[in-house]
Design a protein that fits this description.
2% strand; 8 helices; elongated
Length: 254
């Protein structure tokens, strides 16, 4: 009998998506739902990985609320590790909104030149630079670059704040399309779907999705055109996904 996840639903992949070059978008390293992100200057692949981390953590939180047991104990999210993720909002805030408020946890803001507009705002005291997160330097345009770098180094010595420990991926990276399949298998499993139903659903939904079907052949050397050929394969995938959920609840994500 399933526990019926309410906050976490099945994610349907787009069948095809074209790039500006006319080629199909490969989902092996790009989020199969969102495609290429425009949230920031950070690469779409990097944001897609954190989006999956966010999605899985939402499952952890819902399982925790429902007091679900896994690996012999209740799922408990490590609130010390995830303190800066604002867990109380995670189940209700869309990823894009959450990411804009938390991107700094994962990536350093780059050094950049201020535009005249930004400098004017800074002078008037209502720009983003009016807080204590930045150092502002005046650099003569005619100065030799080597001298600039030396003087900048001297100016910033003992003035830089130590960055808190970040959130890094561990282990071997998993392609985005595999996360998509793992996630849906996990949701269907928790909702009480049989292995056969999961197998048939995945084979239908991922038919024609770039990168979903791995390059495998049967015992006669004939290419396998399905995500799952056997119910045992579904069982292994679900077991892997459940193990991953336990690891994520403790702060580890590959």
């Amino acid at each position: 009998m399933g526990i019926y996840l309410v906050r976490n639903k099945l994610l349907f992949p787009a069948k095809t998506r074209k790039l500006n070059t006319g080629k199909s978008l490969s989902y092996s390293m790009i989020d199969p739902i969102e495609g290429i992100s425009s949230l920031s200057r950070t690469s779409a692949t990097q944001i897609a990985k954190y989006r999956w981390w966010w999605r899985y953590l939402r499952i952890c939180l819902e399982l925790e609320q429902k007091q679900v047991f896994m690996s012999g104990s209740k799922i408990r999210v490590d609130r010390v590790y995830y303190k800066r993720w604002d867990l109380d909002d995670l189940l209700s805030v869309p990823f894009n909104n959450w990411w804009k408020a938390h991107e700094s946890l994962f990536f350093e803001e780059p050094v950049e030149l201020l535009t005249k507009v930004e400098m004017d705002k800074l002078a008037k005291g209502y720009s983003r630079g009016s807080n204590d997160e930045f150092h502002f330097l005046k650099i003569p345009k005619s100065m030799e670059r080597s001298l600039v770098l030396e003087q900048v180094k001297n100016c910033l010595e003992h003035r830089m704040l130590r960055r808190p420990k970040g959130f890094k991926f561990t282990g071997k990276s998993t392609p985005m399309i595999r996360h998509h399949i793992l996630f849906n298998c996990l949701v269907m499993s928790f909702n009480g779907a049989s292995r056969e139903k999961i197998m048939n659903w995945c084979n239908h939904q991922y038919d024609g999705v770039e990168g979903a079907i791995q390059c495998k052949t049967d015992k006669d050397g004939i290419p396998i055109e399905k995500v799952f050929s056997y119910k045992q394969s579904v069982s292994r995938t679900v077991a892997r996904a459940r193990k991953m959920i336990v690891a994520i609840s403790k702060g580890s994500f590959a």
